[in-house]
């Protein structure tokens, strides 16, 4: 009797928790649902403690094989002040020989390679080796639409996007406000803009695109991207789009002493009474904003868990490559005098990085003041937690517009936090709104909407749901 062929899929992840975590979750689905052999090639920053923790705790050898490629030295190819997007693109470009070597030598021969957005230059290597090549967009379909349409916009739009007086139109989609464009589009003269346009073209060279969203959440955007849709026609794009989300982390069973203390503290708080404050794995705020945030939390008189890291001036993604590496004394000096002692009964400060899914899944969490990274947004939705949208970098301004205005899942400040300091009174008001449902209307409406989408998300990934079916169709195509 013939042994059934083992289907082998290779996933390629660029540095950064926002890229690594979705790749790991996708890997787990291929192993647990379809019994595929999965190898994850992770190009790692080597400077982020949190990244190392994720790799150590999630990627057990019994689940899938990990090949850790340290980030190549790129000092000769980038300037000191080059943006994160530029750095990521250059890192992944320079890692190509190592990735090629793995793909050509690994056994059994891979049936498919699935790369993240910053690794699209791996697709031509897959082509050469006669392996199917897919791109996994860890964000949503509206962002994918803007990305793919950007080379066309580059021809159509004159001057800077941020100086446009009208919203930026994408065929078949809601337009994007000029101030909400993706980071690389903020300055067309910056090198990251050129790199970004290459990424858009790289996606179109693939055999298909996986998106971390679901049919019922973004039906219109998905339809315009697919064959026959207005955007697809405009781009002459004929590749399949698979909505496979939400792919989110399960709470880790292993806990360390700091997580145990945190959970014990949360256990003692009333249901839905705590606001969780975190700017993701790479986000930072200015010193002035950090103080206003502290005062706002204190003024709100609500319980809070705040993941704190030292402030920076000017760059919101300053901690992107170094998450998890500073001490309490370093952070404490930036907070208002006496803040820690005054709020010790109602607040808990967590240094640098926390097990977010464990926190969001706790019954005492009633709101999440978030940078609106798409992974964090999905974790909030799947746990039924309403958001305070506080976008900082990457596609987060677009995400904030989607969750606050498009989907009704969040309250948000009247000003963009990247443009102006959000003052303590407004912060206190937003916190009270999501926790107490102040004035009885908006906060409650947001909470009800989150509950609706939580059910919709769970249904999509359950057996027979839209995302379950989409991933099965892809798995069948790969297993061929």
Output the keywords.
13 strands, Rossmann fold, 19 helices, alpha/beta, six-stranded parallel beta sheet, globular, 2 domains, seven-stranded parallel beta sheet, 480 residues
Summarize the structure.
The longest helix has 20 residues, at 442-461. With 480 residues, the chain is of the alpha/beta class. The protein has 19 helices and 13 strands.
List the helices and strands and how they pair.
Layout lengths: L7 E6 L3 H18 L2 E8 L4 H10 L6 E6 L13 H11 L1 H10 L6 E5 L6 H6 L3 E6 L3 H16 L34 H13 L5 E3 L7 H7 L4 H6 L5 E3 L13 H11 L6 E5 L8 H14 L2 E6 L19 H5 L6 H4 L4 E5 L4 H5 L4 E6 L3 H9 L4 E3 L6 H11 L3 E2 L12 H13 L5 H20 L4 H14 L1
Parallel strand pairs: 1-2, 1-4, 2-3, 4-5, 5-6, 6-7, 8-9, 8-11, 9-10, 11-12, 12-13
